[in-house]
Amino acid sequence: MLMRTDPFRELDRLAQQLLGPGTWSRPSPMPMDAYREDDQYVVAFDIPGVTADAIDIDVERNMLTVKAERRPVTKADDVQMELSERPLGVFSRQIVLADTLDTEHIQADYDAGVLTLRIPITERAKPRKVSIGVGSGRKEISG
After folding, report:
1. Are residues 101 and 43 in contact, defined by beta-carbon separation less than 8 angstroms?
2. Which stretch of 3-7, 26-30, 35-39, 134-138 has the lowest confidence by average pLDDT?
3. Contact, 44 vs 116, CB < 8 A?
4. Where are the strands (E) in the chain, listed by range?
5. Side-chain half-sphere of 29: how many Cα atoms within 13 Å?
6. 55 phi and psi, to 5 degrees?
7. Which of 21, 33, 75, 100 is the one with CA 20 to 30 A from 124?
8. CA pair distance 110, 36, nearest whole angstrom
9. What is the pTM of this model?
10. What is the pLDDT of residue 131?
């Protein structure tokens, strides 16, 4: 369903810390889990501190793209920031979906900083029994 290994993930994390927050043209990656549950695939993205209206989910053919933006919290003028470790900016993840998934019926839920997508498996991809027909005997071809 998706690419499992990313040898540059730790390097990307370090670069993101050095270069600052992600932008729409250079988003930061977001962590995710993906697993199969009954007749659907479930993909969960960690994006805490993001409001639901700041999440954008697109599907084009078999490419799923999730983008989210964590904006800075507005503070009063007399507040002095002592420590800021929570990353701000744009986060994004793209996943190539298999042809056996039904991209027309994706369900998305967002709760407690976790975006969960449920993608049903198409009927043609589900296992099924094939019945065997029994012939009526020998057939002769005359010509």
Report:
1. no
2. 3-7
3. yes
4. 28-29, 32-37, 40-46, 55-60, 63-70, 89-96, 107-111, 114-120
5. 13
6. -110, 135
7. 33
8. 19
9. 0.68
10. 81
